[in-house]
Write a structure and sequence with these properties.
By secondary structure, the protein is mainly beta. It has no helices and four strands.
Length: 70
């Protein structure tokens, strides 16, 4: 959408430990996930969308997935 400037990145790689086991580490980043509403008042006198400090809101996270095949 116009002017919402939000970004999502995901980085992953599959490591084959053996013929039956694969480990996949994942790193992700979300910038401004609420779009143009981030940091704005949800309603008059209410909390801001995304919480306090949401105008600089960004999220980093990670997941470790292990797959077993039998």
């Amino acid at each position: 959408f116009d002017g919402e400037e939000n970004t999502a990145w995901e980085l992953y790689y599959d490591y084959k430990v053996s013929d039956n086991i694969t480990v996949t580490p994942v790193l992700f980043y979300l910038s401004n996930p609420f779009g143009s509403a981030t940091g704005q008042r949800a309603y008059s006198g209410g909390d801001t969308v995304g919480g306090e400090g949401a105008d600089t809101f960004a999220v980093w996270g990670g997941v470790l997935k292990t797959t077993f095949k039998f």
